[in-house]
Amino acid sequence: EEAGAGRRGERSEEGPAERGPGAAFHMFVLMEDLLDKLKLLSYEEEAVRPHNMRPLSRHYFALPTNPGEQFFMFCTLAAWLITKAGHPFEQPQEYDDPNAVISNVLSELRSF
Length: 112
Known about the structure:
- With about 110 residues, the protein is mainly α.
- The chain has one domain (about 25-110).
- About 50% of the residues lie in helices and about 0% in strands.
- It has helices at about 15-20, 25-40, 45-50, 65-85, 100-110.
- It is globular, with a radius of gyration of 18 Å.
- InterPro entries: Intra-flagellar_transport_57 (IPR019530).
- Keywords: Cell projection, Cilium.
């Protein structure tokens, strides 16, 4: 018996439908904000074109379309951003072990 569930001030694990009608679109808003910030940093010229990749769409990471491609794009952008922040970081290759790549990214970010 869960007495008191749903009281004000209590946090619960709610899905998007329980948080309000706009919650389902929050990921799209976050992706558009991310894209605006990447454009300010000239990501298209510095990160995407050198790897012969297409620029991101407004909803690229908000919708799971091709997880392998999306993961590689994430890793490419992460490596570029780390390098841009002044920490040399080797660009991961498409067929590198995903666990090793993420471990390297997290390790580098912890060193900041």
